[in-house]
């Protein structure tokens, strides 16, 4: 199924295997056949293609394909473009049968489908015009895809420059030019640590001795701009893994909404599906979310999704968080810059590479606590955040414009197909043999073939009949 492009009619036939390996358990097809994905959502996505370039003229594929072989009256390309129409696929979707997630288009829907059949020469002209217009459209779509990729790379470069001190002039440079003093990052970090120590000492239920967060080992870290410093997330604030979800807590007297990894996206929080479970009052004190908390995706089936961050702005009252998320609670001044730093680390795959696990990649609270970030002075942070937000806003607007153009291109593609099968794409030629004549000739040919086949079945075999001799008689004849 992956070898068939969605919505283009193209397929990749480069994979070759021995026939003995695929002769059973696969759908067989031949050069020129049209493959039609019958299962959801592949059918709705337009997984329809003409089998071209097959080694030895034949192929095998997923059993989730219907194979349609055109008669002499029909162009394979004309048939494939007809099936690619969104209108036809919507009708096929309405006729699907099966259970949810396993819905399929029955073969009878395809065999009974009625469509306009022009003369064969006109079919070729229609196909040629479709392909000419699609070639231009595909070139435009390819250019838009390249723009999308460039915007993605530019976004990454903006975040990378923000975290390395290359995006805006540093506070050290400005202070030197203006002959003034400034607060370096190490002083900022000392103030944050002192505030955390003071809050712990004023807690009523504190236990044991206060444990100072360990400083990072900077021996293998690259140099930072003047006035910047390295710090771990544990030094900047509290890092905590969420509460584990239990079926026993699906109901209870203290039901509260909670965030999970599915709610954190690259574009922020998705609150369309917020779950609830029971949290006691003590648990709410531990796992309740406050404005400014940074949530990190703790685990994912793919490493490049680990560490995906979002900032909580109290969108849902009384909300907690599950153990598929890690909460980072830091000083309010540091939140905006730290979010973009973690976003850069997640986008680049650095957080994913730090994760561990087989199948599911886990970051873990302990690894998150020791994660090292470069911290600039507060004045630098404010300028960096302002510039990052300005540039990301421009990128977002450009990306939205590109996406709108891609959607218009798809609508144009469907418009071309609609005109083609309404007889409005190419002019008709009165000299073309009518399709009715062609169909009548094919019908007569088939009837003749069926009659010949029926006659051959009734005709007695010409093979010499050998009379069987009883064994006893055969022995008597032999002795005589």
Written overview of the protein:
The longest helix has 45 residues, at 120-164. This protein is elongated. The chain has 480 residues and is of the alpha+beta class. It has helices spanning 19-22, 76-84, 86-94, 107-111, 120-164, 171-178, 185-201, 233-236, 281-287, 335-347, 350-354, 365-369, 378-420, 435-458, 471-479, and strands at 27-30, 34-37, 48-50, 58-61, 65-68, 229-232, 237-241, 255-259, 264-265, 268-269, 275-278, 294-297, 299-300, 309-311, 320-321, 325-330, 361-362, 372-375. Strand 9 and strand 10 (268-269) form a beta hairpin. 26% of the residues are buried. Helices cover 43% and strands 13% of the residues. It has a four-stranded antiparallel beta sheet with strand order 7-16-12-14. Strands 3-2-5 form a three-stranded antiparallel beta sheet, covered by helices on one side. A three-stranded mixed beta sheet has the order 11-8-15, with no helix packed on it. It has 15 helices and 18 strands.
State the distance separating the first and last CA atoms.
Answer: 74 Å
Total number of β-strand segments? 18
Radius of gyration, in Å, reads: 35 Å
Overall pLDDT confidence: 91
Relevant terms:
3-stranded antiparallel β-sheet, 480 residues, 4-stranded antiparallel β-sheet, single chain
């Amino acid at each position: 199924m992956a070898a068939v492009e969605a919505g283009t009619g193209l397929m990749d036939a480069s994979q070759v295997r021995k026939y003995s390996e695929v002769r059973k358990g696969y759908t067989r097809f031949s050069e020129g056949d049209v493959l039609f994905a019958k299962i959801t959502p592949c059918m709705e996505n337009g997984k329809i293609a003409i089998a071209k370039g097959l080694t030895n003229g034949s192929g095998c594929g997923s059993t989730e394909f219907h194979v349609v072989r055109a008669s002499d009256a029909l162009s394979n390309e004309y048939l494939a473009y007809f099936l690619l129409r969104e209108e036809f696929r919507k009708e096929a979707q309405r006729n699907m049968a099966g259970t949810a997630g396993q819905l399929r288009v029955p073969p009878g829907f395809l065999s009974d489908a009625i469509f306009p059949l022009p003369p064969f020469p006109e079919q070729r002209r229609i196909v040629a015009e479709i392909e000419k217009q699609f070639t231009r459209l595909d070139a435009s779509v390819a250019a838009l895809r390249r723009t999308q990729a460039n915007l993605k790379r530019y976004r990454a470069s903006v975040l990378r420059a923000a975290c390395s001190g290359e995006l805006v002039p540093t506070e050290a440079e400005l202070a030197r030019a203006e002959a003034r003093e400034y607060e370096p990052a190490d002083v900022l970090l000392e103030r944050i640590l002192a505030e955390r120590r003071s809050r712990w000492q004023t807690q009523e239920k504190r236990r044991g001795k206060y444990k100072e967060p360990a400083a990072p080992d900077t021996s293998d870290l690259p140099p930072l701009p003047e006035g910047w410093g390295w710090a771990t997330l544990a030094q900047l604030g509290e890092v905590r893994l969420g509460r584990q979800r239990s079926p026993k807590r699906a109901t209870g007297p203290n039901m509260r909404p909670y965030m999970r990894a599915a709610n954190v996206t690259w574009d922020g929080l998705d609150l369309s599906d917020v779950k609830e479970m029971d949290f006691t009052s003590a648990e709410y004190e531990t796992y309740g979310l406050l404005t400014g908390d940074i949530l990190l995706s703790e685990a994912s089936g793919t490493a490049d999704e680990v560490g995906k961050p979002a900032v909580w702005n109290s969108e849902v009252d009384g909300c907690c968080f599950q153990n598929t998320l890690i909460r980072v609670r830091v000083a309010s001044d540091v939140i905006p810059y730290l979010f973009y730093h973690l976003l850069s680390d997640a986008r680049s795959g650095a957080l994913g590479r730090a994760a561990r696990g087989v199948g599911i990649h886990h970051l873990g609270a302990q690894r998150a606590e020791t994660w090292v970030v470069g911290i600039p002075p507060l004045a630098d942070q404010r300028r960096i955040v302002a510039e990052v937000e300005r540039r990301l806003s421009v990128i977002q607007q450009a990306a939205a414009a590109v996406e709108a153009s891609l959607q218009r291109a798809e609508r144009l593609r469907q418009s071309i197909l609609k005109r083609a099968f309404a007889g409005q794409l190419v002019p008709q030629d009165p000299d073309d043999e009518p399709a009715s004549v062609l169909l009548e000739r094919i019908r007569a040919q088939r009837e003749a073939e069926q009659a010949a086949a029926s006659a051959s079945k009734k005709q007695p075999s010409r093979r010499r009949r050998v009379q069987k001799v009883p064994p006893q008689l055969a022995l008597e004849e032999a002795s005589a």
